Amino acid sequence: MQRERRSGLGGSSGTIRFRCTFRNTIYDVLRARGWKEVESETDWDVAWIDKDWLRENFDSMHLDEHQRINHFRNHYELTKKDNLIKNLKRWQRQLQREGREEEAKKYDFFPVTFVLPADYGLFVEEFKQQSGATWIMKPAGKAQGRGIFLFNKLSQINDWKKDHKWKSDEPQAEIYVVQRYIENPLLVGGKKFDMRIYVLVTAYSPLTVYLYRSGFARFSLYRFETTAKNLSDTYVHLTNAAIQKTGPAYDKQAGCKWSLRHLKLYLMGKYGMEATDRLFGEIQDICINSLLAVQKVMINDKHCFEMYGYDIMIDDTLKPWLIEVNASPSLTADTPQDYELKFGLLDDVFSVVDVEDKLDGAQEECIGGFDLIYAAINAE
Q1: Inter-residue contact 138 to 177 (CB < 8 Å)
Q2: Please, what sign has the CA dihedral across residues 340, 336, 201, 69?
Q3: Which of 75, 78, 117, 160 matches a 20 to 30 Å C-alpha distance to 292?
Q4: What is the model's pLDDT at position 210?
Q5: Per the UniProt entry, what are the Gene Ontology biological process annotations, in alphabetical order (predicted)?
Q6: What would you report as the CA-atom Rg of the chain, rounded to the nearest whole angstrom?
């Protein structure tokens, strides 16, 4: 028996009303569901908005019982590079203090990382101990590979420091993260790749997490090697589609992606089913453990849900590494296959979130392409 519809849902017409600040696949999905677009800043049932709009408007808004919005208020605790690292390290230390050593050991899925400028002294000590290692520098607040570079000499950092306002006593200091570069990535056909995994969180208290079965691997179009000559070659080292699309080897029809299914079949053929299943089980654990690390600092709100894009890299021992988490993974399609994946993904997001109040309130383990991978018991 279907439960009573939430008061206010659909307004006077009964049709779900949406507000959307994008004009890509998400807009197509909202319209395809038969929902009605509205221009109102406040009178809608579901809003899919960009982070800038959220930052400017959320704190001053009062949301009615029926309204749903696609970001948590302080999503940046997970999705800003420096905050992610701080929260992972903080949670790992807390587990160690509480004597939960086995749980703390699970947090070995991110490379050695420092936040600059705050950790510059610690970074220099580590750099000197890891003689000859390659490091990667990333602006904490930028995406799509902007501002990223590799280096293996401190003198290269000295040159960079002269050109950047990042000193800790400057109010507008630009924050960076510096990580040990994964120099032994798993290669396919001699080329580097990473994986985009989609995770949907419908609540942080109690933590409720869904994992999407589909996703993709993003490939560099150039053969991988780490030499002094090619450290500055972003086409070799960065797999971001935004970067690869600008390269001379890019084919618009073919793109630079494999489906997750294609990648799994390749891995099973080369390494066997057991090793492949173990790898994807470890990736699922990374998603859950990273969310547990931010659960207590995230502001839970029953109006909010969020779909994250997890970027995972695999090394040549089949160990997965968390590279970053995106609050606004790209919903623009590069190819027809990309569009089909993202359309299905987003359509299934709304089925899980149950904007239309079709579910009976029970927690479904499988909805569309999503699987429920973590559901904490609400202690309240």
Answers
A1: yes
A2: negative
A3: 117
A4: 98
A5: microtubule cytoskeleton organization
A6: 22
